[in-house]
Amino acid sequence: MSVDTLLAxxxxxxxxxxxxxxxxxxxxxxxVNFGLRRTLPHLAGISTGFFVLVFSVALGxxxxxxxxPALYTLVRLVGAAYLLWLAWQIATAPSPTSENSQRRPMxxxxxxxxxxxxxxxxxxxVSASANYLPxxxxxxxxxxxxxxxxxxxxxxxxIWALFGxxxxxxxxxxxxxxxxxxxxxxxxxxxxxxxxTASL
Length: 200
Hints:
Layout: H1 3-18, H2 22-61, H3 63-67, H4 69-91, H5 108-114, H6 119-132, H7 139-167, H8 174-190, H9 192-197
Helix pairs in contact: 1-7, 2-5, 2-6, 2-7, 2-8, 4-8
């Protein structure tokens, strides 16, 4: 794989990773509600899960969707249902000062597993593999494309968690925090439309 191709892949990874999507909006909300330190497992889970997804897709896992189109439809429907549930959890989250608050940030495993039902993640992984891998691929090239994407993805999504953590004090009042969470939930739901209408 040429240097020019790697640079083009890195640019594509940056644009697709840093733009708004389910992962970034959830990290922003988690940064606000839990702070950066407690959001780190969520952040690490996204990057690790996405690395595994890109690696699997580049190896040919996405061919399952070509062979069984209903499988991709199922993944999108499960992903949509899970996103709606997450949006509801964010919108109805109690105030952090509430005595009955049992909220916890998303876990490493939960965030990693979410990538497999995140339609945007699938589109990103399939597009990267289709556009930047040569026709005759080997394991080294697959590792390379997944690693480049992961190295760009991690700091890109971390920016959203860091921004949320910086807003934490500013959104300290329960009413302000509730309004923010509702806006985040609405934005999360709006990400469903382009993802559900996109095709691999």
